[in-house]
Amino acid sequence: MSGISSIVEYGCLSDEQRWKANNYNWQWLHELDDHDKKIVELLDCLAEGEFSGQASAAQMYDLIFQEKKSGMQKEYVYDWGEILSYINIIVYEETRHGISLGLMNHFAKSGKLDFIQNLSVREYSEKYVWCYDERTFWDLYSYALSHLFGEVINTELYRDLRSLVHHEELRNVITNIMKDEARHTRAWSSLIKNVIEADNYHKQRFLKSVDVGLTYHNAMVHNTYFEGQNKMMHLFVNPQEGQKGAIDRIVDVKFHLMQNLFGNDNPYTKEEIKEMHVDFLMKSLGKSSAVYAPGEEGNISFVD
Quick one: the chain helix, strand, coil %, rounded to 5? Predict the structure, then answer.
């Protein structure tokens, strides 16, 4: 599937699977027990990460414009039209995730449901749209891959998170977001493969950038990403006997996606992908943020 047909397909899937937010008038939040409130209180950085899907869209357009200005052959620029169109579908869903998590977190901390009313447009734009200016770790190709593999991590986080909560409505929200993220994974995989298959030029550019794409999460555009990562690490559930833990599940999916995208040109084994994943987690362990640092490994410097 390629061209406009893929946009129609994923656009219609988005319409068909869109869950009702009911104007976010979630009076059921008053019913949360202390256990659920404590979990929701940990989700402030996750909410900001979801909101930063706006910044991801802005930066994706910015990166393609940079490639165009740098002299990328026009046909290669045109090959990105599918992905740029899909961003307009996905970004609203990520905003819904941010509103949902932000509202719940705000209620758990304040007991009020006025989160949306108190978020000004200027504050929203500063925090969630233009927050990428100082975090430009990616080029266009690694950034697209980071969206794909970031959705994999999100899906598994929400999968474990929903198993921890008590209230049915809270579990429904988490489940709906998880399903969105899983659908986004399928879409990103399909659309990136279309770019790869459009010309070998793209395949070589993706392979050159794959290290950063495999390890960096696109939500890193937001300043509190690593704070949230460390705060929520324990929300990944310890595996039951005979079952795989979150890291192994994530690595399995990452490897499968790499095989699908690159086939025999996939440069990494499953064991190597796991080593890369764990190594990056260890480097960021206990860090509160990261800044763009050209010249350093991966153009990144962690802040304690």
Answer: 70, 5, 25
300-303/289-292 β-pairing: antiparallel
**C-beta of residue 100 within 8 angstroms of C-beta of residue 173:** yes
Q: What is the DSSP letter of 133?
A: T
Domains and CATH numbers, the chain: 4-303 (1.20.1260)
Give the Cα separation of 168 and 248 in Å (integer).
Answer: 28
Contact of 45 with 231, CB cutoff 8 Å: yes
Q: Give the 3-state secondary structure of 95-122.
A: HHHHHHHHHHHHHHHHCCCCCCCCCCHH
- Say which DSSP state 265 is in: G
Q: What is the pLDDT along the chain (304 residues), one digit of tens a residue?
A: 556 788 888 889 889 999 999 999 999 999 999 999 999 999 999 999 999 999 999 999 999 999 999 999 999 999 999 999 999 889 999 999 999 999 999 999 999 999 999 989 999 999 999 988 888 999 999 999 999 999 999 999 999 999 999 999 999 999 999 999 999 999 999 999 999 999 999 999 999 999 999 999 999 999 999 999 999 988 888 887 778 999 999 999 999 999 999 999 999 999 999 999 999 999 999 998 898 998 888 889 998 8
Distance (Å) of CA 218 to CA 106, 119, 143, 172: 24, 23, 7, 25
Alpha carbons 184 and 50: distance in angstroms, whole number: 13
Q: DSSP secondary structure string, 236-264?
A: SPPPPTTS--HHHHHHHHHHHHHHHHHGG
Q: Greatest CA separation found in the chain?
A: 57
Q: For residues 101 and 50, is the Cβ–Cβ distance under 8 A?
A: yes
Q: Do 15 and 92 contact (CB within 8 A), yes or no?
A: no
Q: Confirm if 232 and 164 have CB atoms less than 8 A apart.
A: no
Write the CB contacts of 45 (distance below 8 Å, at least 6 apart in sequence).
222, 224, 225, 227, 228, 229, 231, 232
